[in-house]
Amino acid sequence: xxxxxxxxxxxxxxxxxxxxxxxxxxxxxxxxxxxxxxxxxxxxxxxxxxxxxxxxxxxxxxxxxxxxxxxxxxxxxxxxxxxxxxxxxxxxxxxxxxxxxxxxxxxxxxxxxxxxxxxxxxxxxxxxxxxxxxxxxxxxxxxxxxxxxxxxxxxxxxxxxxxxxxxxxxxxxxxxxxxxxxxxxxxxxxxxxxxxxxxxxxxxxxxxxxxxxxxxxxxxxxxxxxxxxxxxxxxxxxxxxxxxxxxxxxxxxxxxxxxxxxxxxxxxxxxxxxxxxxxxxxxxxxxxxxxxxxxxxxxxxxxxxxxxxxxxxxxxxxxxxxxxxxxxxxxxxxxxxxxxxxxxxxxxxxxxxxxxxxxxxxxxxxxxxxxxxxxxxxxxxxxxxxxxxxxxxxxxxxxxxxxxxxxxxxxx
Length: 412
Prior knowledge:
By secondary structure, the chain is of the alpha+beta class.
């Protein structure tokens, strides 16, 4: 009997041990399974900015490019690239033989057109006026002679010495002579029509315009510096032939430069006049220049494969070291908050246009609604819902989605 009771006690002992082990196993399994490893970050206060970056190039504010006004030879070059020159200095001389010939031809054309207009406004040339005067004198003499002949025949007719037909013929001769005088007077006083006068004036205006253009071409064969500046581009040498329109040299005041930046179309509406800009050049790593937006785009254009708008940026400091036409990186600050409470952007979630984060409370996640402010590529400003020092989850190590109430194991 005692042996049977001992065996029964052993059975119960083993059964109890098994139940305890099962309970421990499932409890451990439950707690281990529920502990999800997540990355966490702390809400901190500090300066938060939102920026837009793009490429641009340096250009002088006052730039002068000179082109050959005609096909000719470069006679002399008096500067080299990099030379700083005063205003008015002769930079280059082109062969001006053809230009002088064009001026001479244009001057001759003006004189011819002026003479033609003078002749028209004075009813002909001097020769024509003299011929008209002589013809008018002859006509008047013929009228006087016809009047005398008619008077004599009328007296003879009164005495029966002349017939009526002779008197009639004399009257007709007088009328013809008088009509000839009238025609000569009209021709001498109004030889040209108003249309002919206007045409002559237009011809003179055209000739004068041609002369002005020829003189401008001649003036451009002597290239002088319009301002004090630096010659930074020289494309020809002495004795070299330059076709019409070829760029010869460029001169600019390199103490006054600006940046022309190319912002993509979606970013154009975020750029405002006065916003600060940071300029960097790969050729000078570690050096920075500062400026501000002075003109926003007035149109968009295709730039390679991009649709962009031109933004002009003025320098706030010296642009020394930046060469014209160099490519730079431009970063414009479009928003700034000096004392923002922020968390990493990956901690922010949204649902039905409402933002929230998973706040770490103890060993669990609590879904917490928040109000956001500035959002940049890495951080988001929190206006309400969190306090400095709060911890939020940014994601899991295994990619499993975050859930409220989930027990976690936090890693920073």
